[in-house]
Amino acid sequence: MIAQPYQLYVERTDASKNMARYYAMSIEPNLFGEACLIRRWGRIGARGQRLVHHFEREEEAVGLFLELLRQKRKRGYGPKSHFPRGAIF
């Protein structure tokens, strides 16, 4: 069982480079009680790609979540106040 919800949605846009990207993550339990870190990324408005990591312990999932967050912040991704309409995890 997940102790608290973990969700993140960040975007990076640069009109001069025609760049409009998003990156989303969430930690959710699966049917077997494992913690899953679900990652989605791609061009804003597109379905993009999805990757799921499975962990036996929530702490491991949170560690990767925080490390990926640091990487994205370094690359210029910024938080948005809400998830976009129709976001699929």
Describe the structure.
With 89 residues, the chain is an alpha+beta fold. The protein has one domain: q64v53_bacfr protein fold. The protein is built from 1 helix and 5 strands; from the N terminus they run E-E-E-E-H-E. The chain has one helix at 58-74, and strands at 6-14, 19-29, 35-43, 49-55, 78-79. Strands 4-3-2-1-5 form a 5-stranded antiparallel beta sheet, covered by helices on one side.
Strand portion: 35-45%
Q: Any idea of the CATH topology?
A: q64v53_bacfr protein fold
Number of strands: 5
CATH A-level architecture = Single Sheet
Low-pLDDT stretches: none
What would you give as the CATH superfamily? WGR domain
Q: Specify Rg, calculated over alpha carbons.
A: 14 Å
List SSEs in N-to-C order: EEEEHE
Mean pLDDT: 88
> Helical element count?
1
Distance between the termini: 18 Å
Structural domain tally: 1
Instruction: Give me the side-by-side strand order of the main sheet.
Output: 4-3-2-1-5
How is the main sheet built? 5 strands, antiparallel
CATH hierarchy class name: Mainly Beta
Shape: elongated
What structural class results from the helix and strand content? Answer: alpha+beta
